[in-house]
Design a protein that fits this description.
By secondary structure, the protein is mainly alpha-helical. It has 5 helices and no strands.
Length: 121
């Protein structure tokens, strides 16, 4: 059974994923390339989030790693715009929460449960 909070955190990550477009730098000549690259990264991220929501432990591990990266991004605050800086701080706070929450006993057990034969993934 999916623990409380999985759907809510997945939705929050989906919303923050879209916010990644804040980091497109319009001062660079290849804005279209940036949008294309960010779009590909976001599409892959949505795929990971789908498997996270479905309870795959490898997706949980990737989300944990993303939480670490979100915290480390705080070091870039001085080089970003106000919008990007705000997003970095929000993602870092969320990342700290996810690093704790995804390691609680109930949530961790959900991701580590064995797949039943014949169950759809």
């Amino acid at each position: 059974m999916r623990p409380r909070g999985i759907s809510e955190t997945t939705i929050a990550m989906c919303i923050m994923n879209i916010a990644g477009f804040v980091f497109v730098d319009s001062r660079v000549a290849a804005v279209e390339v940036q949008y294309a690259l960010f779009s590909v990264i976001m599409a892959v991220t949505y795929l990971v989030l789908w498997y996270f929501w479905k309870g795959k432990n490898w997706a949980r591990i990737l989300v944990l790693l993303t939480g670490v990266v979100a915290v480390l991004n705080l070091f870039a605050l001085s080089t970003t715009s106000a919008w990007a800086g705000t997003l970095i701080v929000i993602e870092a706070i969320f990342g700290i929460f996810m690093l704790w929450w995804l390691n609680t006993q109930n949530v961790k057990a959900y991701f580590k449960q064995p797949t039943k034969p014949g169950a759809s993934t």
